[in-house]
Amino acid sequence: MKSRNALTEKIVRLRRGLAIYKVGLSPFWQCRIRVPSKRGYVVRSTHETSRIQARKSAEELVASLSHDGTLDGIPSNRTFEYFADRLIKIQYEAVSNNKLSRQQARTDEWLINNERFGLRQYFGRHDVSIIKTKAINQYLTSMRESRNKPFSFTTVNNVISVIRKVLRLAQEDEVIESIPEIRRPQREDNPRPFFRFSPLTSKEMDEYQKVLRIAKEMAEKKISVRWIPVTLELYDFILFLMHTFLRPTLTEIMALRHRDVTIASNPKRLILTVKKGKTGYRQSNSLEAAVSIYKRCRQRYPKAISDDYVFLPYYQNRQTAIAIMQRQFRELLRRAHLRRDDYAGVNHSLYSLRHTALCMRLVLSHGKVNIFNLATSAGTSVDQLQRFYLKKLPPSAELARNLQTFGSEEAM
């Protein structure tokens, strides 16, 4: 007896990957469409008994499958771009709920939609289940080849993070079982410029003391930078950064209000509340000298209330406030002939004060500072201190003694 699935008409190949045929099971012509990604076929009934009409119906089926995203066997809700669009939407919702910075959401969206090397352009209609380590490495190679100048570590790292975020959504929907392993690039640490100070250099060549001296001179001479006079507030701003380890950014020192500062004793210090710093929320201790600096700031603006900013409180636009300090500090560097750090090969900026503060604490403590406490107060990590500061310090007798210390016990 002849099988009901046996051909009753010869296979008619319309073009590569597309054919129609008839079997005994149905009076209608069947349409067979090649699916390269699955290395197989999609079969649909044309619902036509006429071979001529069946050919037309087959072409319409191809167009229909292409339109609804199932051509090549990939439903639209399995594609990379489907989950990428979901990620963009989720992240902007997180921004509106103050759970993610707008800058982060914009950066991720740009990496997805960039016309030259964007993830959508490369992976857009790909089935997420076939995006494995090899395919991701091929993308990273093509990304590097898309321009002559190498991408920074941060950019490549961010791209990898976005890929993982997109695939994690697919994993949550159980479209894929696991996220492929992606090897992150090796970071090449950029040198951290800081102002040389005694005893790393002679007292005559002490760059940090020169910065303080020029800041005072500019205030005394009533120097103006873009029509804004330099006052001793710049001098105190420098000292405050040095004794609190705050970052000279909109989210740290420029966001600091009087309500975020508490004067404590035993030991004498400031307790600072940083709400949205680079590493998130933290409370940190300052050095003792920060207390007198802060008191001068209060005296400078005697009518200040707890909600007022500590520095340049009359500028509610904090972007303007930080820009004023940056311009005045650049003018200071120009006058001090310290614009460039010849050791690091890069230009100095306000950030150099933070780097100087950390180096100075490590050196002037004679190796006795607890680097975990220092990292916590500065809103950084021990790894960062080791990579950028400790390994740059010259060996000394104090550091050797610290290495050989056993607490209260005698060395064995």
Notes on the structure:
The protein has helices at residues 51-67, 80-96, 102-113, 119-123, 133-144, 153-172, 207-220, 232-244, 289-300, 318-336, 351-364, 371-378, 382-388, 397-403, and strands at 7-15, 18-23, 30-35, 40-45, 224-225, 228-229, 261-264, 269-277, 280-285, 340-341, 346-347. Strands 1-2-3-4 form a four-stranded antiparallel sheet, covered by helices on one side. It has three domains: 7-72, no CATH class; 78-172, DNA polymerase, domain 1; 203-403, Intergrase catalytic core (hpI Integrase, Chain A, Orthogonal Bundle), CATH 1.10.443. Mean pLDDT is 86; it is low at 407-412. The chain has 412 residues and is of the alpha+beta class. The chain is built from 14 helices and eleven strands. The radius of gyration is 32 Å and the shape is elongated.
